[in-house]
Amino acid sequence: MSCTFGAYVTQIRPDEIVKRFGSDVETARKFCSVFGDGAAQISRGWADKGGYEAFNLQLKEVATHFGHVESHSDV
Question: If I label 58, which of 1, 13, 46, 50 is the partner at 20 to 30 A Cα–Cα?
Answer without folding.
Answer: 13
